[in-house]
């Protein structure tokens, strides 16, 4: 899968986009890449074969709701399920020709709907066929809808198709449902809705070595500026350190006891001490141990981590990494 970043040149001769001109494209946030999103990707691939065209998935970073919350006084958005890295990992291997990541900024937010269609889909991509949901909105002030896209598509030379909806007994599969299950620690339900285990990926970076000084060394993964839906202490499995997955307890949050200023994933391996600096790892949470909280000093924090580690061992007893219940995908 080719990764293409940014709008490229106005005339559509950007080297990355040139390789996929005349594509079939779908557009969305795809946060979580749940079973509903996967059905869209499957339909995208089928439509690309029908049109003998490249398949392109367009997504945004940051997510539009995050941009508007920061710059336009919109309500604080719900945390995301995935960082961009996690989205791309989930998409890779599904057969797409390209993922096109547009930076959602003032320029894109202020682009009129008709200009978005003409400048982005027509001139830069040369889109042949576009898949979007019936409730898809785009352009400045969300002025564009699927009806406008269909009408403009006829003028510009591309067709428009409604994307499929996937439901189960509880209703439509959505990122909102996955997010709610994750916040409650229901990771079996999360895996069922995703059709795969929920994992966070990243490279282990040097931290402040505080965990090591209190007897609980951690592998630290920086999570970036956009908050995750998960926040708290989780029992789970660390993968990517070589060999079998390792039982672990991890904190996802801002570390209020030590006045942390950035969100981190801090993973403590329960019964081993692997050297992880610089390694690419994935953490698969399996149970919520507790919410994040502030403690009165490091001694209280150390005592709580010891209790958390015992709880994590209990949670993971009899569990196995990568387990996925019967899914809706």
From TrEMBL:
SUPFAM superfamilies reported in the protein's UniProt record: Nucleotidylyl transferase, Riboflavin kinase-like
Ranges where the Riboflavin kinase domain occurs: 193-317
Keyword annotations from UniProtKB, A to Z: ATP-binding, FAD, Flavoprotein, FMN, Kinase, Multifunctional enzyme, Nucleotide-binding, Nucleotidyltransferase, Transferase
Class of the enzyme per the UniProt entry, highest EC level: transferase
UniProt keyword ATP-binding, yes or no: yes
Pathway: Cofactor biosynthesis; FMN biosynthesis; FMN from riboflavin (ATP route): step 1/1; Cofactor biosynthesis; FAD biosynthesis; FAD from FMN: step 1/1
Sample GO molecular function, one term: ATP binding
One family name in Pfam for this protein: Flavokinase
Gene Ontology biological-process annotations: FAD biosynthetic process; FMN biosynthetic process; riboflavin biosynthetic process
Reaction catalysed by this enzyme: FMN + ATP + H(+) = FAD + diphosphate; riboflavin + ATP = FMN + ADP + H(+)
EC number: 2.7.1.26, 2.7.7.2
Family listed: Belongs to the ribF family.
Function of the protein: Catalyzes the phosphorylation of riboflavin to FMN followed by the adenylation of FMN to FAD.
Name the UniProt record assigns to this protein: Riboflavin biosynthesis protein
Organism listed in the record: Thioalkalivibrio halophilus
UniProt lineage: Bacteria, Pseudomonadati, Pseudomonadota, Gammaproteobacteria, Chromatiales
């Amino acid at each position: 899968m080719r990764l293409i970043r940014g709008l490229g040149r106005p005339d559509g001769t950007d080297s990355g986009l040139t390789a996929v001109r005349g594509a079939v494209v779908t557009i969305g946030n795809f946060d979580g890449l749940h079973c509903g999103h996967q059905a869209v990707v499957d339909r995208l691939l089928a439509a690309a074969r029908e049109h003998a065209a490249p398949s392109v998935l367009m997504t945004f970073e940051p997510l539009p709701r995050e941009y508007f919350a920061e710059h336009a006084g919109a309500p604080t958005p719900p945390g995301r399920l995935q960082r961009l890295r996690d989205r791309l990992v989930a998409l890779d291997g599904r057969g797409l020709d390209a993922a096109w990541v547009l930076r959602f900024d003032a320029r894109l937010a202020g682009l009129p709907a008709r200009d978005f269609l003409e400048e982005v889909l027509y001139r830069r991509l040369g889109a042949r066929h576009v898949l979007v949901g019936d409730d898809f909105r785009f352009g400045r002030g969300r002025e564009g809808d699927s009806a406008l896209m269909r009408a403009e598509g006829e003028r510009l030379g591309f067709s428009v198709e409604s994307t499929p909806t996937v439901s189960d007994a509880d209703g439509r599969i959505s990122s909102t449902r996955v997010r709610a299950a994750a916040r409650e620690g229901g990771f079996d339900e999360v895996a069922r809705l995703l059709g795969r285990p929920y994992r966070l990926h990243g490279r282990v970076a040097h931290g402040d070595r505080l965990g090591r000084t209190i007897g609980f060394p951690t592998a630290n993964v920086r999570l970036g500026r956009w908050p995750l839906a998960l926040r708290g202490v989780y029992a789970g499995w660390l993968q990517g350190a070589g060999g079998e997955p390792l039982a672990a307890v991890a904190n996802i949050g801002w570390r209020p006891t030590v006045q942390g200023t950035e969100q981190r994933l801090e993973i403590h391996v329960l019964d081993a001490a692997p050297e992880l600096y610089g390694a690419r790892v994935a953490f698969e949470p399996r149970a919520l141990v507790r919410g994040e909280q502030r403690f009165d000093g490091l001694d209280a924090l150390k005592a709580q981590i010891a209790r958390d580690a015992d709880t994590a061992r209990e949670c993971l007893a009899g569990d196995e990494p990568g387990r996925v219940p019967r899914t809706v995908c």
